[in-house]
């Protein structure tokens, strides 16, 4: 785990009320600060996140661990992989 | 072992940039994609806002640039350039196109950014690829403008347009043998058949076909709204929220003092909810109706006018009266009962 991201709060990215592609951009910026093995939960409301974040993970080689949707609230949990 | 050359490809999500990247990849070049979010992109936001349109047009909405990257098997880096892009929109050195689309300056900006981004990566990148096709767009893709883009971006002859390369002077990647010019193309003009034939020969069965281009600034209605906003504020400036709201709802300016933004469907109403604290907003309380934002400062008489206009777009439009609640950003609310404005009384010139 990266030192600066040791708390559970630090491993959550809140992009609720942002519209795509901003959730993807913010995910990319945040992942760049993390280490392989770190897990990040992305909280979103734009349904496009369900497509775009997994697509972004596929092209960058990261792993989607789970996606959940409750009403408008979407959570995508990913694991950062080595480049 | 000799390391392969590396290229940054501008990936819009359309067919041309997909093909340009693919034909260079097929020559053994390591390609990574860049996609810039300027705030004016048609993709993404618009799909997300307009729920019913999305559902009817695309059962599974996708970000086409990411989709292209997946098809190509390359990394795609999406960069937020909203703030830096303002200077392109507000002060285009090469002017605007038919609307407020600064296409030449936009491409200069993006090609320059691509090179800068490439320099900053480990090991650097050797050249930049775009999907530009000579003569495809009458103002921004003529020979003279392609030269300006290469020169003003600072990328010079490290800018390769694989789809029209044979119509252009050999670039550094061609002269140095990083790519074989003979395997590049001579596409020209607006005819899309050569691109479609190439796509099919490369095994692609699907690609995005954005109607009306990928940038809102090329859209007459959007440009008109942006110009109206600048005139109303007496200042040419914008923030992300401004340019987002220009994409949403009906816009009517019945007075120089204010403009109404009226949601057209549930997705837009939901989107406007996110802005209700920043604006005076109007809700229909006696019938189903849109959420409306009032941008500006209205007098009491003008609030009455605004309520009548909003009521016209509610399900009570045929009734004698409609109840409207008006909420101001300072927390003060008021209730009005108004006669919906008849359609013929909505002046054409109010529509922005």
Q: Which fold does the CATH topology of the largest domain in chain B refer to?
A: Rossmann fold
The overall average pLDDT of chain B, rounded, is 92
**Helix-strand category of chain A:** alpha+beta
Whole-number total of structural domains of chain A: 1
CATH architectural type of chain A = 2-Layer Sandwich
Could you explain the architecture of this structure?
The complex is a heterodimer of chains A (83) and B (352). Chain A is of the alpha+beta class and 83 residues long. Chain A has a single domain (3-79), classed as Translation Initiation Factor IF3. Chain A has two helices and four strands. In chain A, 36% of the residues are buried. Chain B has helices at 15-25, 45-49, 51-57, 64-72, 82-90, 103-120, 143-152, 172-175, 193-201, 220-233, 240-245, 266-273, 300-312, and strands at 6-10, 30-37, 76-80, 127-129, 159-160, 250-255, 258-262, 280-284, 292-296, 322-327, 333-338. Chain B is elongated, with a radius of gyration of 24 Å. Chain B folds into two domains: 6-215, Rossmann fold; 248-350, no CATH class. Helices cover 35% and strands 16% of the residues of chain B. Chain B is built from 13 helices and eleven strands. Chains A and B meet through helix 1 and helix 2 of A and helix 2, helix 4 and strand 3 of B.
